[in-house]
Structure formats: structure tokens, C-alpha cells
Amino acid sequence: MSVINISSNEQFNNILTSSRFVVADFYADWCGPCKAIAPVYDSLASQLTRPNHITFTKINGDQQTELAQAYSVRAYPTFIVFENGRKKQTVAGADPRQLNEVIQKLASEATKSDGAAGDADSGAGSSWLGATVAKGYSDITDQVDAKGLELLNRDNERGEPRVLFDGGKPSGLSGKGKGKAEGKSDWVESDTDEQLMLYIPFQSTVKVHSVHITSFAASGEDNEDEDDDEVPMRPKTVSLYSNRSHVLGFDEADDIPAVQTVEIKPEDWDAKTGTARVDLRFVKFQNVTSLVLFFVDGDGDSEKLRVDRVRIIGDAGEKRAMGKLEKIGDEPGE
User: Fold this and answer.
1) What span, in angstroms and rounded, lies between the C-alpha atoms of 135 and 137?
2) pTM to 2 decimal places
């Protein structure tokens, strides 16, 4: 059967992770319009399903109440289209024409994306990830407000804060030592000592599950003309603060308890991608409008710290409270 009936949160999250596009039909057994449009949905699914690329699902909202609430389903039927685990479009109501248009457009985009897949490594527009994304979550780095970024104690001869959130592959992957382009690098380094204070505002309220930190500490060969204390280190201790209205000063951070402090161990760094995945206490990072990452120290004795990329993993957008569910197309009392 082309349509997959969802029986648990875990099953649905696994599908969101494994399939590029997912269509979810939220319905209820008592909903007349749901039954009327079901043959149309089933027909589209049978024509367009492509394993691990386009997946069609049905979710009984009365039985899977957590999923209905998580995706703000307020009426039946509601169709939601996901791309790479993130909500892309919603169709509310039993409108066959609108549903057909949305799903046919989805199929067209999927076909185009297949043709462009071979160019994904070429650069612009691609989103590079150096670590695995936790099931049920997605890369929400595009929610970062780049104009509001602040980075204290950075070396001005290196890159600006926005390079940390660039979607392209870091030059460190190719073994390019200094990686400078017109005098600037695609990473940041600390200046007077090993500490960095990074302020990250978001365009919307988000939930943060984990942070991917990439750091390619330059080798001695790349810095043969520099003193040992100038050879940059990878971060070791990172303190996180949420919902601050501005970047914290270093003295200020000492007086404010961090929401969470983590220590990145040597074995946490992926040898190929130079990336460490830092899992957070998810319950502590709900309804987040900004993050402050305080890079406290590094994994050596240098006075320089280097960070190449930061990716934010979680869930974008506010989750509205579960309201009264109504049948779209049915009059009250029917």
C-alpha cells in the first residue's frame, strides 16, 4: 500500500528523517470530509510515492494526539507537506483541486531536486552538515538572524561572524591551511586570549536540540612561522545562555549562571569533518529567541581558539496550543 498509517511518534519521526519529502494526512474517523477526499489522496499517493524520496502518510488525530498538537492541527482534514523534516506547506480542508495542485507541485520540485543532486557539493545554496542530525529534528540554522550576530574578542584579520553559519563546506575540509580569500578566512579565531563570546539571535521562536561545532585547528606546518601560543585550538568548554537581549560581556557571563555548560572531549570530534555534536538538555531550550555561546577555553595551551562552523539543530517555529478540533466542511451538529 502506498500510504503509510502512522501508529507512533517514533515511526513518523523516522519517516521524516529517511524521506526527503513527506505528506501527512491528519484525519478522524468521524470526519465526513476526510472520508470524501480519501480516494483522491490515495490516488495521488499511488502515482507519486517514491521510496525514501516522497512518502505519503495518514495520521488519525484522535489516536495520535501528540503529533496533532505538535503540528498545530486545529481541524480535519489537514494535509501537511514536509521537506527534510521541516514543515513546508499546509492544506486545510477537503479541497481536491488545491490538494492536487500542491502535491503535483511537490512532485515537480522533487524531480528538479534529483537533477540538481549532483551539484550539491559545488557550493552556493547547499547546506553542509558535519554531524548526524537527531531523529525528529532538522537543521534550523536558516532561522539565524545574521544581521544581529555579535562575536566578542575575534581576530579582525580572520572571518566575520556570519561565516560561521555559511551553508557551504568549510575550506578546512580540503586541507587548505589558512584558507584566506582576499585577506579573509572562512572561519573565526580569538584575539587577545582563547575566549570567544557569540550572540545568536533567531528570526522566530525555536526549540534547540543540539549544536554542531566545527573546528579545524591549524597544524604546526600551517603555522610554522608562528609561536606555539599562536597555533589555534579547538573549543573545549562551552557555556550556553538563552533568551538574552544582547551579547554578554565576559565579566557579565561570570556572574550569570549558564543554562548549560558542556565539555567537548577529544573523542567527540569527527576526524573527517572536524565537527563535534553537542546535545543539549532539550527541556531547557524550548521557546528560544536567542542563544549565547561562550567558548570558555580550548583543548591546549594556546591563546588562540578557532571555530569554522556552527549549525543549530532543533525545531523552528512556535507551537500553538491545541485548540478545539473542527470538521472543515461539516456544519456543527452533523
Assistant:
1) 6
2) 0.58
